[in-house]
Amino acid sequence: MKILYMGTASAEGWPGLFCSCDICSHARKEGGRNLRTRTQALLDDSLLLDFPPDTYCHAVQYGLNLGGIHTLLVSHSHMDHWFPTDLIHRHEHFGHNAGGVLNVYGNEAVEKSFYEHILIDRFKPHPIDSCVHFYVTHGGDIIHSDGWEIIAVPADHDHREECLVYICKKDGKTVFYGHDTGRGFSAEAWELLTREKYDLVSLDATMGKKPTPSYHMGLPDAEATFQKLEESGCISSQTVKVVNHFSHNGEMTHEQLTAWGAERGILAAYDGMAVEF
């Protein structure tokens, strides 16, 4: 199995759109892996994780034909993870020969945003019911789509909506993709998480070396979560461990994040990083 990290930044991107802090200034000067777009990943060329405003750029940069993707998991309605207007372009009027249906899974806030953006007057001549199907998803739901078995897990993020993270299983491989969330998972979430043994775990590390009590994680929180999963028998020395979803407010350059991870056997994701496992 393979995961492609197409975007690895938090909402403001890296460098931040209007920011001139030391970290953003360093990113503009050095370029390369210090430049990060909003978080999105692709599992095994068939399962799309989140749909940020940067999706078009990701598709172009990585040579993707998104018309062949049939499953999209959305974590929550924040704009860096969910930009639904672009889904109108899956209609035949805008994009030709997209195969089959794109099945989109997300919470009620994601659904509300989807219909608010798609059901506007100028799109009414191009209904997408035949090419995009939306499924309201809750923590604990088990999804079967395009050969995947997916378990939705309640996240520790914005409590104004039911944010979700996902366990994704296919062909004997199991991935936990944990963005966005803090380490304060509910008892229900931990019960779901500790049922599995993981080949790859990808955790939020938004705030760098700063511990964060909830909403997001810093590196200390991610490290503690990896440890708890290991103590629960869910991960082993063979499990690929990744930190992802970085903010410039974490005050660490890519080089510093990479060095932190190298000391602990943890990969610091960067835009374009592909991992096979």
> Largest sheet, described in full?
7 strands, mixed
**Integer count of domains:** 1
CATH superfamily, by name, is Ribonuclease Z/Hydroxyacylglutathione hydrolase-like
Task: Please count the beta strands (DSSP E, at least 2 residues each).
Answer: 14
CATH C-level label: Alpha Beta
In N-to-C order, the SSE pattern is EHEEHEEHEEEEEHEHEHEE
Q: What is the terminal-to-terminal distance?
A: 6 Å
Question: How would you characterize this protein structure?
Answer:
- There is one protein chain.
- With 277 residues, the chain is of the alpha/beta class.
- Helices cover 20% and strands 24% of the residues.
- It has helices at residues 22-30, 55-61, 108-118, 187-193, 219-231, 254-262; strands at 2-7, 40-43, 47-49, 71-73, 102-106, 132-136, 142-145, 148-154, 164-170, 173-178, 200-204, 240-244, 267-268, 273-276.
- The longest helix has 13 residues, at 219-231.
- The model has no long low-confidence stretch (mean pLDDT 96).
